[in-house]
Design a protein that fits this description.
Length: 194
């Protein structure tokens, strides 16, 4: 008689408390890129296990004096294949600071369940340049798909989504929003496991 064993999770990487992580679905190495003011930039991220997020951060490559940005996290809506409910967001962070910036999410120490989550960035200026990941990988297009095309042109491939959104006002639910696919650069948003 053949005995079927439950699959082991021993070989899976565990996310370590006190370490920063990036979405692993993104493509090429980081460069600097500008964001359009009043637009929410979203990046899907697969979280392999239940975690507590102590902070979210990004990196400023060129300062935007007098400006600010915020980060947020959304659930994944399985009916639409895109962002769903707001989970948490950060307070405003100055874009006048060169280098890495971070803030605890509000509410502090949010718990994210295993699965797809959407990390978002919104800035109030287009002067600041953020560390962005390019669109030369196909993992992201394979993970969320696209109603138009996930292939793109040249070396570009689907890496994120954008939707209009006033700075400092995070919609409670993005399930009904209209999205535009980003085929070249999306902001790198990291999260700190608590």
């Amino acid at each position: 008689m053949l005995k079927v064993m439950a699959p082991s999770r021993a070989g899976l990487q565990r996310l370590k408390s006190g370490r920063w992580y990036l979405p692993r679905e993104l493509g090429s190495a980081a460069t600097n890129g500008g964001m359009v003011a009043g637009v929410i930039n979203l990046t899907a991220c697969y979280i392999p296990e239940r975690i507590t997020v102590a902070a979210m951060g990004t990196k400023i490559g060129t300062v935007g004096p007098g400006g600010s940005c915020q980060l947020a996290s959304y659930t994944h809506n399985f009916n639409t294949g895109g962002p769903g409910l707001l989970e948490a967001y950060t307070a405003s962070m100055s874009t006048a600071v060169l280098g890495e910036i971070s803030n605890p999410p509000i509410p502090t120490n949010i718990v994210l369940e295993e699965g797809v989550h959407w990390f978002a960035l919104n800035a109030d200026n287009a002067t600041a340049l953020f560390s962005v990941a390019g669109g030369q990988g196909t993992n992201y297009g394979a993970m969320i798909g696209s109603p138009v095309s996930a292939i793109g042109s040249g070396s570009a491939a689907l890496v994120g989504l954008t939707t209009p959104g006033a700075f400092g006002t995070w919609p409670a639910d993005l399930s009904g929003a209209t999205f535009t696919g980003v085929m070249s650069k999306t902001p790198q948003i990291q999260y700190l496991v608590g």
